[in-house]
Amino acid sequence: MKKIFFSMLVATMTAFTFTSCEDVPAAYEIPGGGNGGSTTEVPTLYSEAFDDNTTAFEFKDVNLTGGLTRVWKVASYNNNGYLNASAFLNNASHASESWAVSPAINLADSKKAVLAFSHAINKLSDVSTMKDMMTVWASTDYTGDVSAATWKQLVVPNYPAGTSWTFVESGDIDLTEYCGNKVYIGFKYTSTDENSGGWEVDNFTIKGDGTPMVSPDKPDTPDTPDTPTGSNLVSNGDFEAWTNSLPNNWKSASSASNAKLSQSTDAHSGQYSVCVAGGAKNQRLAYKELTLKPGTYKMSFYTKAATADGAVVDYGYVKVVDGKISGGNDYIYAKKYDKLTNTEWTAISHEFTLAEKTTVALVIAVIKNPGKDLLVDDFSLTTADGGVVDGGSTEPDQPETSTTSTYTLVNQITDGTYVLVAKTDAGYLAASPLAATYNYGYLKNPVSVTESNGTVKVSDANAFTIKKVDGGYTIQDATGYYFMNGAYNSFSRSAELPASGHIWTITVNSDKTVSIKNKEMGKTIQYDTEFTSFGAYEEIKAILPFLYKK
Questions:
Q1: Boundaries of CATH 2.60.120.260 in the chain?
Q2: How do strand 290-292 and strand 427-430 relate by DSSP bridges?
Q3: CA-CA distance, 87 to 96, in Å (whole number)?
Q4: Which CATH number fits domain 241-383: 1.10.3720.10, 3.40.47.10, 2.60.120.260, 3.70.10.10?
Q5: How many other C-beta atoms can be found within 10 angstroms of the C-beta atom of residue 40?
Q6: CATH number of the structural domain 404-549
Q7: Number of helices and strands (H, E) in the chain?
Q8: What is the Cα 365 distance to its own chain's centre?
Q9: Residues pairing with 168 in the sheet
Q10: DSSP letter string over 110-153?
Q11: If one looks up domain 4-208 in CATH, what number appears?
Q12: For 462, which DSSP code?
């Protein structure tokens, strides 16, 4: 990389204070900053939240090894999009250098400007290298070749702990030096064969006193297209996009989908794979129905056992007519019954031919003997002479939209709708409900929220209804399921009012945290930072939550 040198642009602002490119009478202040002076709303000059799974950022690979074909992409989880970088492939780290470069940010008529974003870092084998391997740069002469541009490193005030997917705010980064020009911001990711973490970047914002930009057109991102392009006929075969704890598109309208699915960070590539739970009967992962033209098709994917117990997999398709399985059970499998271990990923491919236009659900089955869980990643469907029939769309499922509401901290409990929020060193985390396919487990994947003067804004899908009953309270999730203390320190839930185990006592403590204790089991709901989930424990050994009411 030529012409790279450091210009440490330390952001020393404590209340959104700027240093001007030229003398100006006063600094900006955050609205409601409480410093006694007048406040000015700081205009947003450019921002990207990546929630539509597209971006105007360019991804530029400088060095890829070990079979890597890319590092950066747009990913999403629970309707939240973000930039994602990882050089972990085939269960191993690989050396790389790759950039995500913003479009040109026009600061021509700006006198002051700051950059801010949120980011999460995880899976580094050595977190002490984080600030050297995941860096942010600025350039005024970038023309598409990162190696030919002049870059200056920006100092990021706040980095995450590097051990979880919890987003933290970067803090304000001064861009005063670039006022009067256009500037490109580059997120530079590097890795080694021994150390390759995951870096997620969200809520990219530049504020200042110039003219807000019209966002440039965003090209479809190859990794998460609106409709699969090229030879691959399926979308989200890399299992990077999830909504409500389920992988987008991987749900058949028919009974072809019967397995319990969960997200796994043991991935063949990228950040995630899907874990398909086994059972006493064959359990199936199925892609949403496709109407295919006559032709020969090849389905390919990577798989491995989820545990040392091993697993057996089969794969193929089933015809779907009027939303139902043709013949009731006419699954057309390869019948190879591949035996899997959990030590390495196995590449699977299977060809099948359709003589006429056919609506199918592609399936991967966990065979009941031994009926053990398996992982699936990087699925594709290709053809040389077929294709998707018009109207047999492969467009991604539109995620169910849920309302975001404001919830207020309470010091007494009355009937109503609440969110459960834990205050951690990494920020405030709101509990998420159990995955739609599970009726037991811990409350994983908490949502990062911003607490402001005793309020938080969060999706109503994360809410719980609390109602006073004889002996205490009932707790129901947003889908109406009753929560009980489950096995071990987890929860179970029921669509019907249970005979027992569903009564909770709730006490507001002097610090406004709440002790929510199951009356039958005597266990108290807490947030465990080690497992990054909410559970119910006999001893008070973790973080007691707050309750915020709608």
A1: 241-383
A2: unpaired
A3: 7
A4: 2.60.120.260
A5: 14
A6: 2.80.10.50
A7: 1, 45
A8: 26
A9: 119
A10: -S-EEEEEEEEEE--S-GGGHHHHEEEEEESS-SS-TTTS-EEE
A11: 2.60.120.200
A12: G
**Could you read off the pLDDT tens digit of each residue along the chain, which spans 550 residues?**
434 433 333 333 333 333 333 333 333 333 333 333 334 567 888 999 887 667 889 999 999 998 888 899 888 776 678 899 999 877 788 999 999 999 989 898 888 999 999 999 998 888 899 999 999 999 999 988 999 999 999 999 999 988 888 899 999 999 999 998 999 999 999 999 999 999 999 999 999 886 665 455 444 433 333 333 345 788 888 888 887 778 888 987 677 888 899 999 888 887 889 999 999 989 999 998 888 988 889 999 999 999 999 999 999 999 888 777 876 567 888 887 889 999 999 999 999 988 888 889 999 999 998 999 999 999 999 888 888 885 444 333 333 445 789 999 999 999 999 999 999 887 899 998 876 546 677 887 788 888 999 999 988 889 999 999 999 999 998 888 888 876 567 888 887 888 888 999 999 999 999 999 999 889 999 998 877 789 898 889 899 999 999 9
Give 172's contacts (C-beta < 8 A, 6+ positions apart).
11, 13, 16, 114, 115, 116, 157
Q: Where in the chain is the domain with CATH 2.60.120.200?
A: 4-208
Answering whether pTM is above 0.70, one says: no
Beta-bridged to residue 243, according to DSSP, are 246
Instruction: Determine what percent of the chain falls in helix, strand and coil, rounding each to the nearest 5.
Output: 0, 45, 55
CB 261 within 8 A of CB 420: no
> Which residues, 6 or more positions from 23, have their beta carbon under 8 angstroms from its beta carbon?
none
User: Which DSSP letter does residue 78 get?
Assistant: T
- Name the burial class of residue 371, with classes exposed (0-12), middle (13-18) and buried (19+) by CB atoms within 10 angstroms of its CB: middle
Tokens of 428: 């405030």
411 C-beta neighbours (distance < 10 Å), count: 11
Cis-peptide into 370, omega within 30 deg: yes
